[in-house]
TetR/AcrR family transcriptional regulator (Hymenobacter rigui), 384 residues
Amino acid sequence: MAGRQKQYDEQQALDRAIDVFWEKGYEHASSRDLQAAMGIGKGSFYLAFKDGKQELFLKSMERFFVLHPRPLLDALRTSAAPLDIIRQYYYALADAQGPFHRFGCYYANTLTQTEDECLKTAARHYIRQVADAFTLALLRAPNAAASLARLAPELWPVYFTTLWTGLNATRLLEHDPARLRQLIDFQLRLFE
Amino acid sequence: MAGRQKQYDEQQALDRAIDVFWEKGYEHASSRDLQAAMGIGKGSFYLAFKDGKQELFLKSMERFFVLHPRPLLDALRTSAAPLDIIRQYYYALADAQGPFHRFGCYYANTLTQTEDECLKTAARHYIRQVADAFTLALLRAPNAAASLARLAPELWPVYFTTLWTGLNATRLLEHDPARLRQLIDFQLRLFE
DNA sequence: AACATAGTGTAGCGCATGCTACAAAATAAA
DNA sequence: TTTATTTTGTAGCATGCGCTACACTATGTT
């Protein structure tokens, strides 16, 4: 392996790109915006990401999953009270001020903001991961039987997803976080 | 009133603009796209809509409301079974194939796809109109008391909105309309 | 007929976009 | 030291964007 060595940390640069993509959305984040935030120039940018912005965004979605949903999913796997963890996650989305999800859901935004089928497919994948994990966690909860009697389990993922993506839009309408939290509490009562 | 007379029908042109905006979204509908669909040139376009694309879209949102939500709201005001009407409206959004809402919700799309505060404020306004009308209609329904006991009425608009905007995104994930209809049925059981 | 007014068609400006081309610089292997 | 390889910085292309400028045409008023 010969050649000059990179003057930037790839992962750090990816994290900075996430900041820009999250705030502005895929389409509105220009390659120049991204390069500035990542602290690199065009040359390095198109060397590291040969397919440009799209490739960077795909990698940023993977990285985002490691940073945010994965720790949650890991916690869910071992928790005795998964519902409380899930509730806090929904709260974070409803709470526009919070440090997480200040700009909404990274993946749901992608789903509604771009027409790129490749990116939408990836976003779908990550959202499904979370919804399926929620379903599995609550199926293992002590009071699962009661919940099952109310709603068939194959509808649980679509139930979570609709609530999640709904909140992602409704938070732009209803600015009172308390009311959104009340709605979340009501919807999650299904699993109590 | 002197001067040459218009060679196109303003309302027809507006309807064509809606087609383009609905399919492509505000940002992705270029002024040239719109002019072509409306059958007019730059000159007529910027004479009729001095503030350009933004003004056209604002007017298209008003026109859209007259075309689609208003008839629904009128029907709700007099119906003895408002829940059935509401259910069909949700079905139409879930059913990606249907003639209406083939490209999702005109207003919810605006809310998540653009950063223009002026347009978002207008979109919020129209969505609220519908959610409030749903609430009023169901409060007048014969079995309103039972529904009230389950969920406080001030949460009804946010309940409708979250389901609506949620479906608007979930339809991009879950392509089986039957499953979405099952979810709608379950959510609307609150008002039975 | 003369004039003012409203609508139409065309040329093109200034800007931002994603991306390529390519020379210069740095590093490891020979 | 030479060579091959990798990274970096800069110049700039082609395209599409929203929009303006302006001459031209059609119409109503005087």
In short: The mean pLDDT of chain B is 96. The radius of gyration of chain B is 19 Å. Residues 1-7, 40-44, 47-48 of chain B lie near DNA strand C (CB under 10 Å from a C1'). Chain B has two domains: 10-63, 68-191.
